[in-house]
Please model this.
Amino acid sequence: MKLLVTGGAGFIGSEYVRNLLQGSYGPSEADVTVLDKLTYSGNLENLASVADDPRYTFVQGDICDADVVEQLMPGHDAVVHFAAETHVDRAVHGPAQFVQTNVVGTQVLLDAARRHGVGRFLHVSTDEVYGSIEQGSWTEEWPLAPRSAYSAAKAGSDLLALAYHKTYELDVVVTRCSNNYGHYQFPEKVIPLFVTNLLDGGSVPLYGDGLNIRDWLHVSDHCNGIQLALTKGRAGEVYHIGGGTELTNRELTELLLAATGRTWDAVRPVEDRKGHDRRYSLSIEKIRNELGYEPQVSLHEGLARTVAWYRDNRSWWEPLKGRSL
Ligand SMILES: NC(=O)c1ccc[n+]([C@@H]2O[C@H](COP(=O)([O-])OP(=O)(O)OC[C@H]3O[C@@H](n4cnc5c(N)ncnc54)[C@H](O)[C@@H]3O)[C@@H](O)[C@H]2O)c1
Model:
């Protein structure tokens, strides 16, 4: 089995590659090619622990570059597609790159996968494609109603992937997950931003009234779900991957203050993000019943591990803080 993993030098992609090569998904004969442009959020240090593994190859390149993708695709049995522009705040100020990478890049990959007869294409999508939900939880059939350039571009790529299944019978599986957290997450996203600011004795910016609700998913649980969907999911299907723990941003902030020994004095209320979705909530019944997925890492344990990792790995995140501004 030879896998092409796009965006494998980012937060979630690198967790997947490390786990796969270190045998977390069982003994595997998988060879892995990582294709990553190494944008500001891509970092080869995330893959340092597998860099010498003979089953691993790294290629620096852009998924939008049809020549690069054309050369790389032959011989791969499956694609696991993580590469994307991912930060909603950046999309507010510069949507063009989001459309280019997330929509055009995905189409370039799908086209090459189709022409070269790739056996499975797993597209990593997001719960943000559904917009915002006041009550209840989304199921996989819910209509898409994205509200930011990030989520609109992700919805475009998600629907393109499903269209390639319907039109060309490409074996596509789409996963839509909730908010990930864990080690190696770029310190622009809320949990590592808050943790690193708090560890440094600084303040943390809390959007609006702080009552926006997110479902938190440990990155290792997300990658377990991806592996299940890749190996056991049905072609043409969408699977939700969630963590089952919903919190307001205020509640999350309280937990992070407690974990870093800081108090509410460190919280700086700031104007709400434009178009800030109020609540995300995924039903994970389908992947639970069909593929046996169950999140393993409680929020309590996951946050404690994450804070400890950022405390112990300053040399990883300190150079990145400048890049995130
Ligand atoms: N982090 C989350 O909470 C979350 C939630 C839902 C869905 N997702 C999805 O999961 C995937 C991975 O997210 P992440 O948090 O690891 O993001 P990340 O920003 O940490 O990593 C993205 C990676 O993609 C690479 N990349 C960007 N543009 C590229 C291009 N044109 N060509 C090749 N490589 C490129 C970057 O260099 C980086 O290594 C994304 O598709 C994202 O939409 C993430």
About this structure: The pocket of nicotinamide-adenine-dinucleotide is lined by residues 6-7, 9-13, 35-39, 41-42, 62-64, 82-86, 101, 105, 124, 126, 154, 177, 179-180, 186 (CB under 6 Å). The domain at 2-180+217-241 is CATH 3.40.50.720 (Rossmann fold). The radius of gyration is 19 Å. The chain has a mean pLDDT of 95.
